Amino acid sequence: MEIATPSHGQLLDTFIMYGIIRTIAQGEQYQECMERTRIKPEGEYYVIQIDKLDEHTIKDEFFKNLYEAYKREYGIAREKSPQVAALQGEEKVFNKIEEFLKRGKNSRQTLDISKLYKKPSEWEQWRSNKCKFHKKELAQNPQLKESVKDFTAQVSLSPQLGKYLYKSDEGIRAEQQKICPLCISLALLGVLSYSVRMRLREGRSFLGWQFATLIPTKEASATGLSLFRRIFGKDDKLIIQPFYSEKMPELIAPLLLFKDTDTNTLETLQVLSPILFTYRFDPSPGKAGVLAVRKVSEYPASRLIKFYLYAKERASNEDGRLLDHMKLVEYSPYFSELALSILTKDIEHFFSFLRGFAVEKRRRTRKLVFFSQAFVEQALRFFSNSDDSI
Ligand SMILES: [Zn+2]
Questions:
Q1: Tell me: the pLDDT tens digits for 141-175?
Q2: What pTM was computed for the model?
Q3: Which of 206, 253, 337, 375 could potentially form a cystine with 319 if both were Cys, beta carbons 3.0 to 4.6 Å apart?
Q4: How far is the CA of 151 from the centre of ligand 1 (A)?
Q5: What is the number of structural domains in the chain?
Q6: Tens of pLDDT along 305-318?
């Protein structure tokens, strides 16, 4: 059985794909099933191959597992922070979706998702509006009919199309992306389980949100991709990092993301070479409670991963206590210099980071800090590495 995500755009499809994986992970037979399930990125969409052995369970239990996974992930998010869960206060959207999924679960009709999520070559007259087809199919289930309505993909799911897109940028139009209840349920489940939502603040004032997720670039098993969850929150913990510097956040987020990940997971992630996708919302000027997308960025996660593997390998070496040094300047603009040096492989930024560290250390301990020749040589070796695959 093959499922193809509906080509709603790279980010939205990524979250839908994660939603499907999370649904499978909710099932009783999930371990074997996750191992046998393959995910292939195909540009704008993903093909998910389900083994014959698992087809039956997936069809029979799709709504039940989707409902349970959604309730669980939304419950965790709401408990940690109501604002995070609501993704800009649209709590009623979550409740409507829960109602839709509950009806699906109680109807006892099976859902063959491969009939709704077909490969692009199998689409005919519905090509331009796949959700119209999804709605038509979903509405054939009498118990679902009433709750089959259009939803707006919130800006956090589709920053390029969000209705809160920053309008003062000439040439960019704010549009609404209407999608069906199944697409939005899976996407929200994906965003709740496979993204980090960081609340940015300075003192008591709220600055905005920074979201980050990983986009796979290579074929992998569902078990492989589920490793990403270790980065987004161990033991279902939601990562909410307060930031205290107004200048920093954009580049620090990628560095913080991999900080606590163990070496084994980093090595596996390195093989999957994902893209780190980040986007930031700030309050709209003059519109209370409305957020606008300010910045969307993509980074090759493998460079960051390689850097952490390098730093962790040398963690016990007196000269190489880079991780300790990082802690001291974690929330300062110097940290951005470190991120820049890793992402651009420009040693100048690394030296700015070292200078910043020395200044900060002196300010706190009144001691001058000098880095040894060996430490600087090690850093130079890392940054002058001609291997472009990192
Ligand atoms: Zn749809």
A1: 988 888 888 887 776 676 655 444 444 444 444 55
A2: 0.85
A3: 375
A4: 10
A5: 2
A6: 888 888 777 666 65
- C-alpha 219 to ligand 1 mean position (Å): 24
Is 204 inside a domain boundary? Answer: no
Helix (H) or strand (E) holding 312, with range, is helix 301-313
Tell the residue number behind the tokens 């910045």, with chain if given. Answer: 295
Q: Which residues contact 61 (CB under 8 A, 6 or more apart)?
A: 27
323 or 218, which is more confident: 218
Q: Are residues 125 and 232 in the same domain?
A: no
The answer to whether the CB of 340 falls within 8 A of the CB of 346 is yes
In a domain, 296, yes or no: yes
The structure tokens listed for 127 are 């090509």
Selection from 367, 348, 349 nearest residue 358 by Cα: 367
Q: Could you identify the residue written with the tokens 């005919």?
A: 124
Distance of CA 29 from the midpoint of ligand 1 (Å): 27
- Using the mean position of ligand 1's atoms as its centre, give its distance from the Cα of residue 230 in Å: 29
Alpha-carbon gap, residue 148 to 368, rounded angstroms: 66
Residue 255 pLDDT: 74
Residue 276 lies in a domain: yes
Q: What's the domain range around 22?
A: 2-194
Kindly give the distance from the C-alpha atom of residue 133 to the centroid of ligand 1, in angstroms, as a whole number.
8
- Whether residues 190 and 229 share a domain: the answer is no
Q: Which residues of 183-215 are buried (b: 16+ CB within 10 A; e: fewer)?
A: bbbbbbbbbbbbbbbbbbeeeeeebbbbbbbbb
Which structure tokens are listed for 337?
A: 């210099």
**Same domain for 172 and 246?**
no
